[in-house]
């Protein structure tokens, strides 16, 4: 197997390479002054299975084009099989038409991935699992929720917090199934009380949402808000404030993906959230790190999946 790293998440690719004891294959990525990108494969890949690790996070379009060009370059060098590991699948939230005239962008990028020639695609925690049904090539929607739950559980044990005194909170109705999967691994049992926040999103204004109500009991408990992604913080921060207004002692938050907008890290640090648990599906830039953030690597999960690739 030849393992390549795109430029969007080289730290994660290096961790996977080390775990598999497979060196990263050589490739050159050049970005020109007019924003064009060129990918050159610098290895003999003929009849090889080739894997590219590339998150399509911000800048989303740029990282997608690089991924497409990797695939084309490998095909031209007669690679036997080309596999994309896309820990964060950009445009995954744009999977349905909310208003007349809107594009369904998730479907478009999936068509691109298939048309350019990928043989299989791995992603982590799609925003909507139904999006998996759009793929017509082999596809794997891996989940980092069990890992995130396990590490979060360990954190609370280390600070001597009673797990039964923690309420797992879904920040909106759409996250209920994901939060339930997290809760099973967090509590280590299938039966537990669930808390759900009803949210209203403004479809005319990006990154604007407000909580309408809370169903369940957070009174006197630590609230742990769980979601698949945080971009602007417009869902998770108001949810934290609502939990505190309903009697929660403290609020923590956990999300698999952090594709932050510019101001999100400072907003989360200034918020009343005690700690923010996340993973490295997206590269965390130095400017995006903040004291409350705790990052957990998905590299072991990727390495285990790639052991099955042939």
Question: How would you describe this protein?
Answer:
The chain is of the alpha/beta class and 310 residues long. The chain has 8 helices and 14 strands. It has helices at 10-20, 60-76, 105-116, 145-158, 176-187, 236-245, 264-270, 299-306, and strands spanning 2-5, 27-31, 37-41, 49-53, 81-86, 120-124, 139-142, 166-170, 195-201, 209-215, 222-230, 250-258, 273-279, 293-296. Helix 1 (10-20) packs across helix 8, helix 2 packs parallel to helix 3 (105-116) and helix 4 crosses helix 5. The longest helix has 17 residues, at 60-76. The radius of gyration is 20 Å and the shape is globular. The mean pLDDT is 93.
Can you tell me the number of structural domains? 2
- What is the overall silhouette? globular
Q: Order of strands across the widest beta sheet?
A: 10-9-8-11-12-13-14
Look at the helices and sheets and give the structural class. alpha/beta
Distance between the termini: 7 Å
Could you name the ranges where pLDDT drops below 50 across 5 or more consecutive residues?
none
In the CATH scheme, what's the topology name of the largest domain? Answer: Rossmann fold
How many extended strands? 14
Count of runs of 4 or more consecutive helical residues = 8
The biggest sheet amounts to: 7 strands, mixed
Mean pLDDT: 93
Strand content is 25-35%
- CATH architectural grouping of the largest domain: 3-Layer(aba) Sandwich
Radius of gyration: 20 Å
Helicity level, as a percent range? 25-40%
In N-to-C order, the SSE pattern is EHEEEHEHEEHEHEEEHEHEEH
* CATH class type of the largest domain: Alpha Beta
């Amino acid at each position: 197997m030849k393992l390549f790293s795109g430029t969007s998440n080289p730290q994660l690719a290096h961790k996977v390479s080390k775990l598999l004891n497979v060196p990263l294959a050589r490739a050159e990525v050049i970005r020109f002054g007019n924003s064009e990108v060129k990918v050159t494969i610098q290895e003999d890949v003929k009849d090889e299975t080739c894997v590219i690790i590339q998150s399509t996070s911000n800048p989303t379009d740029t990282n997608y084009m690089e991924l497409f060009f990797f695939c084309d370059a490998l095909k031209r060098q007669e690679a036997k099989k080309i596999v994309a590991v896309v820990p964060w699948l950009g445009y995954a939230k744009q999977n349905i038409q909310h208003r007349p005239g809107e594009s369904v962008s998730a479907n478009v990028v999936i068509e691109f991935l298939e048309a350019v020639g990928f043989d299989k695609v791995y992603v982590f925690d799609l925003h909507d699992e139904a999006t998996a049904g759009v793929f017509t090539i082999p596809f794997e929607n891996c989940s980092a929720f069990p890992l995130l739950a396990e590490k979060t559980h360990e954190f609370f044990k280390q600070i001597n917090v009673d797990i039964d005194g923690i309420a797992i909170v879904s920040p909106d109705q759409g996250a209920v199934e994901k939060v339930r999967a997290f809760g099973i691994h967090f509590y280590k049992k299938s039966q537990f009380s669930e808390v759900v926040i009803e949210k209203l999103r403004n479809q005319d204004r990006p990154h604007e949402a407000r909580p309408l109500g809370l169903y369940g009991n957070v009174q006197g408990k630590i609230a742990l808000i769980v979601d698949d992604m945080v971009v602007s913080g417009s869902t998770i921060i108001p949810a934290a404030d609502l939990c505190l207004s309903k009697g929660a002692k403290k609020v923590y938050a956990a999300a698999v993906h952090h594709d932050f907008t510019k101001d999100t890290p400072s907003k989360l640090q200034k918020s009343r959230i005690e700690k923010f648990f996340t993973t490295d599906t997206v590269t965390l830039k130095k400017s995006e790190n903040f004291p409350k953030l705790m990052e957990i690597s998905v590299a072991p999960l990727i390495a285990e999946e790639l052991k099955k690739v042939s």
